[in-house]
Every structure is written in structure tokens, then in C-alpha cells.
Amino acid sequence: MRKILDGVRVLDLTQFFSGPQATLFLAGLGAEVIRIDSPDGADTVAVAPPYAGANGVSFDRTTPDDLSVNYLKRTRGKKAISLNLKKAEGKALFLRLVEQADVVVENFTVGVAERLGIDHPRLADINPRIIYCALTGYGSTGPDRGMKAYDVTVQAAAGLMSVTGLPGQPPMKAGTALSDAIAGTFAMSGVLAALLDRTRTGRGQFVDVSMVDCLFSLLFDDPIDWYERLGVPVRQGNRILRFSPINTYATSDGWAVLGAATAGQWAGVLKAIGREELADDPDWSSLDWRVANNDKVDAIVRNWAAKHTTADAVATMLAAGAVASEIRGPEELAAWPHLKARDMYLPLEHPTLGRLADVGAPGFPLKFGAAAAGYDSPAPMPRQHNQEVFGKILGLDEAEIKRLVEAGVI
Asked: Which of 3, 163, 271, 294 is 20 to 30 A off residue 94, Cα-Cα?
């Protein structure tokens, strides 16, 4: 089937995680994403640990073919060229590519694109239909716009670390680079919205994506600014303040999430643990009372869970109509039939070695009834598509391409 973004060309100036996440999703929707790296390879993550190759995964490169696992995952479905934007000829070639592109995505620090002469006003003069997405830590405006940002600093600045962890314990970051991933997803959405708007107006526009804004917009759905005024800790651990019970509970052989979000599910919890008499108790049947007395509710579920295996506890709760899930680690995720059935756990492909044994990668998370989605090719080797892009798109002959290589332009 066709892909939704077939025919859309994206120039990808991103590095690290948030930007490559955005362009990865655009590639999954069918866009032609052209990743642009420096000719000296100084700004590419292709050679950053951990590596994957013929000898498996390692923190050291054991063969010349070894490439970064993150690079192999984040550049699937993309093309790769090299171009020195600090040289006049390199910038001129980039501007020629902009004339034939639909989208530019970059995650430079604020001001870098302007110093290079490739900021949105300059590119819009060349191609009024261009959509320019700038993904930064704090946004393109505001007093903190120039601050450098990494996932952990954004989790701190946007407040996620303040609410993550156990009551009375130090703040914690999420276990993965969550703010990077969220910002990349928002950036993809912003580009899609701008592409839709262009069909109505005929013009492109600037899309300003802030990692802090994106994370804060999701975090502040709950009234966390009122938690302490309501007499509860900001850090709630694994429970959800609005419901009781719902938490992680130790079983006889591991851990599980068990609980209820509705009255019917609470009845299911009571049935599962053999305490159905509490359904008639005016206190225990009240969600308000259970939230205020969550320690008592947790205690009866905890005592029950400790006497059952994880599999038995989850199965019993689900059969009774309650909420339950085992807590899957990486090995369990790799073996989960549900993920495989939805093409979400895929073998990672290497551009020269093919399928890598026992190395997985996430599939494309959106499924469409009338369009295809996903990554049609493995990550490219750095500068793999120089000849195609500079030769076929810009019309440079082999002699000119060779000269530009020797001059350090491409």
C-alpha cells in the first residue's frame, strides 16, 4: 500500500535522540528523509557505544562494521549524506536542496542555525513552502532559550523528576530518555500539522518545539501543584493518587501491578482476594475513603499478592474484572507474542551484515487501515547516498562530486 507521506522530502539536521526520533517517525510514514552529517563524522552517533555487529553487542568496536545500536535504530528508513555547512560551497549545496525539499528538521542550540545562515527566515526566502521544525530544550523564545539541554536536565527543569520516586525519597528521573522521545513525537505531530496547513494556504511555516514545553504539557494534567496543599506527597511512587488500590505489589516470585479504577473493578479486586464482604461496607465501598486511607487498602492487597505467583495473581485479578499486569523486563518484552503479532518487536537490521541475532528494535507504532507504515530499509552507512542525492537530485557529475569530496565539502 501507499504511505501517507510518499513524495515528501525531509532534510534531517538532527543529532542525539529527540530530533532523530522525529525524523524516524516521518520516515516510517513514508517521507524521504535525507540525514546530513559532517564529512569528518565528528557529529554522528554512528560510532558511539554500545555497538552492534557480527560479534553481537559490545561497548567496544570489535570489527570495522560495528555501528552504534542507537544509530541503527534511529536512522532506519533514512538516506545519509555528508555536507560541511560551515563551508560556503557546502551551504550553497544545502540551499539548493532546500529548494527541492518540503521539511527541514534541526535540533541545534538556539542561534546556531542563524550563525550558519540556514535559519527559517533565510530558507523561507528560498522556498516559501518549506516547513522548518526547530527542536530545542527550552524553545526558540523565552529567557532560557539559549540553555543547552539533555534529557535528564529537561526532566529536572520540567518537573518530572520532582514527582518521580517514593515519598520521602530523593527525586528520580524516568528510566529511559522520556523527554527526548516525547519531544520527538510532538515534533513529528507539528510537522504533520504544518503539512496539512500548507495544503490550505500554499505556504510553509516555522514549527517551534521545546522539550520542556512538551514534557510539562503532559505532566501538568494532574494537579501536582496542589498535592502538598491536599496533604499528600508530591512523589507517589507507583500508585495513582486518584484511584485506590492501584500499585505495584510483591508476589511470591516477583512483582505485578494490581488494582482498580472503577467501582466494577474494585468489586473485581474484592472477589479476587476473597474479601467480597467489604463491598457492603460504607467506607470500603467509597473511592474517596479508599484514596484517603490507601495504606489500609494497599495492605490487604499486598498480603494477598504475597501468597500468589505473579502469573496466578494477574490471571485471578483479570478473571475477576480487576486491573492487572505482570511487569515485563527486556527479555519478557522480546518474547511477548502480542508485540510480535503487531510488528512492534522487530529484529534489528545492519546495512552490511543484515539481520543481527538477538538484537531487537521497535516497529512503527501507528497502524492504518488504508496506508502502509514502517521502515523499508536499515540504517544507512554514513554518506551512503552522496552519489544519489548530489548526482540525481542536484545534477552534479562525478568529477564535481570528487572535487567536493577532496575539498572537504561533502
From this structure: 3
